[in-house]
Each structure stands twice: as structure tokens, then as C-alpha cells.
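Appendix B. Chain record.
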Amino acid sequence: MEYAFKYAESYPLCTEDEYPYEGKDSPACSHQKCAANPYTLQGFEDLEIESRLSLYTGLTAQPVSIAVCAGNVAWQFYKKGVMKKF
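C-alpha cells predicted for this chain:
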């Protein structure tokens, strides 16, 4: 996730409408397509682990990315829905 955020600090981002998915056989990716209306990330930070307040604060200020440690055996059998903390 950190690499993606660092990329977003360096290159303009597009909305899906501005730069729709073109498939794996499309021409090379070009961040130049969004030069007219660029969105750039102005920094990022790690939030406290398992802190609802930290998450809510982050959501009001910027995009939030969440990682899940999938080493738990329960993930083998996950199919859908909300998984509760073990």
C-alpha cells in the first residue's frame, strides 16, 4: 500500500470516468491522460491498529487503505459476509 501511496504523490490520479479500464491488451498506461484534471495525494500516514477513532479521523481527511493479515485459519473457509474478530 505504501508504494501505491508514494506513486499517487508523484503522479496525477484519474477518476474511472476520465480513464476507464481498457483491458490487458490496451496500450501502455499513461498518467498523462489525466493532466487536465489531476488529483494528487498530499501525503499519507499509518493509523493506529484497531482504533475506530483513528479510522474515522482518517476517513474524513483522505482515502484509507486497509490490510488484513490472512494467516488465520478461518480465512481458508471464508466465502462472504462480515468476518468477526476472533
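Further analysis of this model is presented in Appendix C.
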